[in-house]
Amino acid sequence: MPAVSAPAKVLVTGANGYLGVWLVRSLLEHGYHVRGTVRTTTKGDTLKLRVADLADRFEYVIVDDVLKDGAFDDAVRGIDIIMHTLSPNVLSMLPEEVIGPAVKGTVSILESAEKHQDTVKRVVITGSIGAIMRWPPGDPRVYDESVVNEAAVQDVEQGSKDPVTIYCASKTKAEQKAWAFMKEKEISTFDLVFLNGAIFIGPPAHPIGGIPEMTLALQHFYLGVIHGRTEATMFRPGSGWIDVRDVALSHILAAQKPEAGGQRIILSAGDFVLPELNAVAHAIDPALPKGEKAAEKIYQFDSSRMRQVLGLVPRSLEDSIRDSLAFYRTIPGTA
Length: 335
Fold this sequence. Notes:
Number of helices: 11
Radius of gyration: 19 Å
Number of strands: 12
CATH topology: Rossmann fold
């Protein structure tokens, strides 16, 4: 498909989320017209205030139940490109609470796109490295886009109640269903891009009232980096990381690069183990814990496609952590 450049009209699902707010603002700054989905009028009005300086090109629609058939049909009407960021980001021991909603939401947005093939040119979906990496951690290895985390799906089918395994299975199955939909329906009027993001870090674009309002990743960053509680954080085995602002930019680049169509692309600025995060944070603020001795990296991600196809040059870990620390200082009860 050709590039979808500004002033095209973009639909952002989950527009008031951690990634969604950054994406809405970035799209507006790049000259796009943006329609965002939110669950309530209050959330929509609040988001509009966040982008008040650019609000003449922003509108929102209410999608209060994304699991209803045709939930996105009206939202997609007149849209050139869809950016689907909305998906369950919860850890649960009950597969039905996570996997079904993830798959349903992903297929639903594609069904709505199919109904509006007269305008839709590309669908960009925010995926996860959970659909690629093996969990629990095994031997060290480098993961690229050719890897699919079938093991998580099999583990859940065999009765696993591990929340991270269930989360990974949900991301894997949702992505598989999306590619299968495109193939089975023989869609040729629009194409699909999956951006498989590593752990998102970096400051939110909107005020946060307390720790419970943070994403799980920001909560675990707080535990492991600010307080040094390594035993309590999912960061302990390490992973890939990327700043949320670069994730937002990646979605825009995925719209603008014709060659991105039909691809899954790992979004990772680098690999880490928790002591590395501690060391960088301590160098910025010596009052923070130094951390333990760095361990071997089990998870490594090949991000060459991100750099070559999207042309993204992500910001440094130091810059992302510095901005994150400044954000944490604004949160009540985090001192």
